[in-house]
Amino acid sequence: MKIIKGGLVVICLIMLVSCFGFTDKKESEKDIEKQVYVPQEGIKVAYFASGCFWCVEAIFESLIGVEEAVSGYAGGKTLNPTYAKIGTGKTGHSETVAVYYNPEKVSFETLVTVFFGSHNPTTVNGQHPDYGTQYRSIAFYNTVQEKKIIEETIEKLSATVYKRKIATEVTAFTKFYKAEAYHQDYERRNPNQSYVKAVSVPRLNKFKKKFPALLKSEKH
């Protein structure tokens, strides 16, 4: 972004077009901390990064078979990253969502399809309007089979959908750091926040329109 006259204007513009900088803590960490999620037997977890985790978490939580989605950080080497630290783009981590799912209701392959179908994987280091290595696209895998599914999906999309090269990183999962409590369920808890209204909700609605058969009922 070009520096324009008036520091306040620059700050306001940055906040209006990026999810970074929204660190409002009017609610205490204790008040909004999710109950500790304890996966039942048979529940698996997959990890995906595709831009602002507020958007990604909401998308995956709307899926049949997904028990929980948690926002956090992964893909880098910095220990104990925080929102402020990853915002510098120097930690190596990307805003990532841990997706806890029931494989009897939704397959890893379907999660991968949703991942690629809910963002532009050809964008390098970001998803509009958020740019930087912390917003890059990453599909993490825990097994050789998961890696194969991701790579085969990329190959298929490259041949049938995208002319530009897919920039998504295919990375072995190592460690996930849960984000601060106020990031969890951010879109649901802050429906009138400017970024949520302008970016998160439209992205979620676009996804829902594209994959109606995969959605939980409104009463869920």
Task: Describe the fold and architecture.
This protein has 220 residues and is an alpha+beta fold. 35% of the residues lie in helices and 18% in strands. Residues 1-16 have low confidence and may be disordered. The termini are far apart. Strands 7-6-1-3-2-8 form a six-stranded mixed sheet, with helices on one face. The protein has a single domain (23-214), classed as Peptide Methionine Sulfoxide Reductase, Chain A (2-Layer Sandwich). The chain contains eight helices and eight strands; from the N terminus they run H-H-E-H-E-H-E-H-E-E-E-H-E-E-H-H.
Q: Brief description of this entry?
A:
The protein is an alpha+beta fold. It has 8 helices and 8 strands.
Q: What is the count of structural domains? A: 1
Helix content: 25-40%
- The overall average pLDDT, rounded, is 88
Walk across the major sheet and give the strand order: 7-6-1-3-2-8
The secondary-structure element order is: HHEHEHEHEEEHEEHH
Q: Mind summarizing the main beta sheet? A: 6 strands, mixed
| Spatial shape | globular
Number of E strands: 8
Instruction: Give the CATH level 1 class.
Output: Alpha Beta
In CATH terms, what is the fold-level topology? Peptide Methionine Sulfoxide Reductase, Chain A
Q: What fraction of the residues are assigned to beta strands by DSSP?
A: 15-25%
The helix-and-strand class reads alpha+beta
Number of helices: 8
Radius of gyration: 17 Å
Residue runs with pLDDT of under 50 for 5 or more positions: 1-16
Query: CATH H level: which superfamily?
Result: Peptide methionine sulphoxide reductase MsrA
